[in-house]
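Troubleshooting: if your tokenizer reports a length mismatch, compare your output against this known-good record of 242 residues.
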Amino acid sequence: MRFRRILLKLSGEALMGEVAYGIDPKVVIRIAKEVKEVHDLGVEIALVVGGGNIFRGLQASTTGMDRASADYMGMLATVMNAIALQDALEKLDVFTRVVSAIEMREIAEPFIRRRAIRHIEKGRVVIFAAGIGQPFFTTDTAAAMRALEIQADVIMKATRVGGVFTADPRKDPNAVKIDELSYMRVLQEELAVMDASAISLCKDNDLPILVFDMTEPGNIKRAVTGERVGSLVRAEAGSSAK
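Known-good structure output:
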């Protein structure tokens, strides 16, 4: 295996499928099946899920809502998504734990680093929810922090395109895919990988980020078994493009 312990970062929008709002159960089941396929290989898996399909705090704050209040509402949306993923995984006989940065003991465990690592070591899929429990931080930053805390080998950032491009390939037909790039290039060129805080955390701790297309079935398995998938962000990377 190329990676033994991964943190999979899913946006809330990834759970929408073709619906305009909320959760598409068919998409959640498809994602759960992909996670199970990799889990069955013996790979240790944790997930961080966003909440943009239900509520986006930053967007609400631009319309006059207090930013902290809006961000807390966004954190609650991530918990709803985490429970949906847990339900789909457990229907496939994958044991899971939802771990929330905001205490809500009836539906999730509080975040305790050593306990979360122990769950992972026992073969459970851990789903981190509620970001880091503080406003003004995105779930990208939460993914970087949790990946470092559980000593993951890589952050796998699920997107709807095949990796990192010089421009948005959905808008610019001349956009070029970059196979490998450095953290500094991402920051300097403001490439849409993760937010600057998350990239800086990964850079300071030499944690690679693999950006890949989640809509292509089997990509998670391909990545962990060593096939070239998506774009890899790491220290001192080359700037090759194809």
